[in-house]
Fold:
Amino acid sequence: QGSYQEYVRVSVMDGVFIMPDEVDVQDAASFFVNPYTCVGICDTVKADGGSAFIHTAAASQLGQMIVKYLKTTDAPKLTVINVVRRQEQADLLKEIGAEHVVVTSEADWKETLAALIKEHKVTHAFDAIAGESSGEMLTA
Structure:
């Protein structure tokens, strides 16, 4: 059984709850995606023996959730290297507790990323952007 199902059977006592009327049906159907993805990313890195990973588009809701999750006591002890395009995105992440943020609009971002990869022995990268950014990170 995968994580995407057209139909699913759950207990009415603990697997169903009423959504507020103001919540759109599409939003209600996907409300769990980011939390599930956040924990899945962290669990994947930990299960593979990693201690650090890169996350692009890190100012997204998912990226913010990862930063917050890794600050909780229940989370695996991992380091995330957050990659964003603009300084205001970096500021947002730092305000919520991000320790490492690389801004790709800065001239030396590749050198900064390379140093963090080496320092934290990064073994995984989760790239939400793809395209040229994937290649650029691999050559950092």
User: Anything to note?
Assistant: The mean pLDDT is 88. Helices lie at 25-30, 33-47, 61-69, 87-95, 109-120, 132-138. The chain has six helices and four strands. The first strand starts at residue 52 and ends at 56.
